[in-house]
Design goal:
The protein is mainly alpha-helical and 226 residues long. 74% of the residues lie in helices and 0% in strands. α3 packs across α5, α4 runs parallel beside α6 and α5 packs across α6. It is rod-shaped, with a radius of gyration of 60 Å.
């Protein structure tokens, strides 16, 4: 009769049981703990990667939006600056044009004034010392018709338009009867012989003392002198 080792049977039986258990575990859907832990760790890593990629995409999108908005703001600022520069250039050009036109007008007026003065001097130096000639001088020198009429009224009462009229008692002299006559030297050294010099001095006196020839006439009418 053959002898069988009990120990061998026990080891074989243990091995068979372990094997069968593993097979049964696989058949029933159960796996050892170490085997089940590994797929869970892999799934967690995949989720982290996906979340990271989504975050990066969002950051990139926001960055692109910010850059786009900044570019739009820069473009708007540049356009506004260009418009402001164009407006300033237009304003400067308009100002220069206005200044040039004003200068040209001033030069034109000055030229006309010089022509008028030359004509006036020509008339004043014509040597026509008749009453009508002296009155024409006065009209040119005074200019304003109303003031000339008042000036003429005074001269008519003082000297009758005689530029050499002399008051024997007082020494008053000339068209406006300056007292003394030498006062008229402030208007010209030829005050004795030039009616224009006497008219200029008399007009200045009336303007300074009575504000105008008409003011002088009002005072004369009230007081009999001026």
């Amino acid at each position: 009769m053959s002898r069988i080792s009990v120990r061998g049977i026990a080891v074989a039986s243990a091995t068979a049981v372990t094997t069968v258990g593993a097979v049964v575990g696989v058949a029933s859907g159960s796996e050892p703990t170490a085997a089940a832990a590994q797929p869970v760790a892999d799934a967690t890593s995949l989720d982290t990667i996906v979340d990271g990629q989504q975050t990066n995409a969002q950051v990139a999108s926001l960055t692109e939006q910010v850059q786009s908005q900044q570019a739009a703001a820069d473009a708007a600022a540049k356009q506004a600056a260009e418009q402001a520069a164009r407006k300033k250039a237009a304003a400067d050009a308009a100002k220069k044009k206005a200044e040039a036109e004003a200068k040209a007008e001033q030069q034109k007026q000055e030229a006309a004034s010089r022509d008028e003065q030359r004509q006036s001097l020509s008339t004043l130096s014509s040597g026509d010392y008749s009453v009508s000639g002296i009155q024409a001088m006065a009209q040119q020198i005074i200019g304003n018709e109303q003031q000339y009429e008042c000036f003429s009224w005074i001269v008519s009462h003082e000297s009758g338009w005689n530029y050499q009229a002399t008051n024997a008692s007082s020494g008053a002299y000339g068209l406006v009867q300056a007292l003394p006559g030498s006062k008229m030297a402030s208007a010209g050294a030829d005050w004795r012989t030039n009616p224009a010099t006497q008219i200029k001095w008399g007009l200045g006196y009336m303007n300074d003392r009575y504000h105008s020839p008409c003011g002088a006439q009002q005072f004369w009418e009230a007081n009999g002198w001026y």
